[in-house]
Design the sequence.
């Protein structure tokens, strides 16, 4: 019997709160974790690779997969931009006797948690404040004034759902947040 069958870890946060940095830290520290590669309809950025960073696909292909119930969760996160978690991705990771780690948006995280209430651990990464989040997003240099405003508004909305998750980590110091996440994951892995 597979040790980790159907266990999964969901890490969610508003954009810019630090979930990707924390997720990468956890992946380096726990060999039994495997990053669940999400599907996306956006174009690859910079050095992103298909099947590594995302499963890049056309909107038509994504919508077909929705019709065929191939997603555990999916969202149109921004107008015309779909993101989702393929059921086949989770099954592939479980078949390797590993635990999928999902780095996904807040609505998607709630959907996955509802489907796996007994075997999932959900962690919400909270920014110290919406102002700090705005500064982090601005420092990336990838946002227009409009996209920045949209992300900040969405973040304020997403923060209202933080109490839906098993654990909340306030990321006001990345190193401390990573250590807190490690302790939470260690407890989850050792729970029978």
Sequence:
């Amino acid at each position: 019997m597979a040790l980790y069958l159907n266990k999964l870890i969901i890490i969610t946060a508003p954009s810019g709160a630090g979930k990707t940095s924390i997720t990468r830290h956890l992946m380096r520290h726990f060999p039994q974790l495997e990053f669940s590669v999400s599907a996306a309809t956006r174009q690859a950025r910079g050095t992103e690779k298909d099947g590594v960073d995302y499963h890049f696909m056309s909107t038509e292909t994504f919508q077909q997969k929705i019709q065929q119930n191939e997603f555990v969760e999916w969202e149109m996160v921004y107008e015309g931009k779909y993101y989702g978690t393929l059921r086949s991705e989770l099954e592939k990771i479980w078949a390797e006797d590993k635990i999928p780690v999902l780095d996904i948006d807040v609505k998607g995280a709630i959907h996955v948690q509802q489907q796996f209430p007994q075997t999932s651990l959900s962690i919400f990464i909270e920014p110290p404040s919406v102002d700090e989040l705005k500064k982090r997003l601005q420092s990336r240099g990838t946002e227009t004034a409009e996209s920045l405003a949209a992300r900040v508004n969405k973040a304020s909305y997403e923060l209202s759902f933080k109490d839906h998750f098993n654990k909340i980590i306030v990321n006001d110091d990345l190193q401390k947040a990573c250590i807190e996440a490690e302790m939470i994951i260690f407890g989850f892995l050792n729970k029978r």
Q: What stands out?
A: The CA atoms of residues 38 and 54 lie 5 Å apart. The longest strand covers residues 71-78. The chain has a mean pLDDT of 91. The first helix runs from residue 19 to 29.
